[in-house]
């Protein structure tokens, strides 16, 4: 997805301002969410909770990914607070 994303002119401006973290060890949607949120936590100042997260995945997988990330983040409200989760369309 990252290679595809970088080839899309409509995302060029956003990519210039976003920090992209790539999780490559998961074997399921749930482990992808767990590992990705862990990766995000490791790359974030622990004094400041990230406000948003954008998931890049294929259209078939989009809703399931969003719901899984939302549920896992909600299970740790003291860590994630009101994290907004988006998907690219």
TrEMBL record:
The positions making up the signal sequence are none
Q: Read off the InterPro entries from this record.
A: DUF218, Rossmann-like_a/b/a_fold
For the DUF218 domain, which residue ranges apply? 19-72
Pfam family name, one: DUF218
The protein's name is DUF218 domain-containing protein
């Amino acid at each position: 997805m990252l290679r595809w994303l970088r080839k899309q002119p409509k995302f060029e401006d956003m990519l210039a301002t976003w920090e992209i973290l790539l999780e490559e060890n998961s074997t399921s949607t749930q482990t992808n969410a767990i590992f990705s949120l862990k990766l995000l936590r490791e790359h974030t100042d622990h004094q400041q909770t990230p406000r948003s997260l954008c998931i890049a995945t294929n259209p078939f997988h989009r809703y399931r990914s969003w719901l899984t990330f939302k549920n896992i983040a909600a299970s740790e409200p003291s860590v994630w607070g009101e994290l907004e989760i988006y998907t690219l369309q």
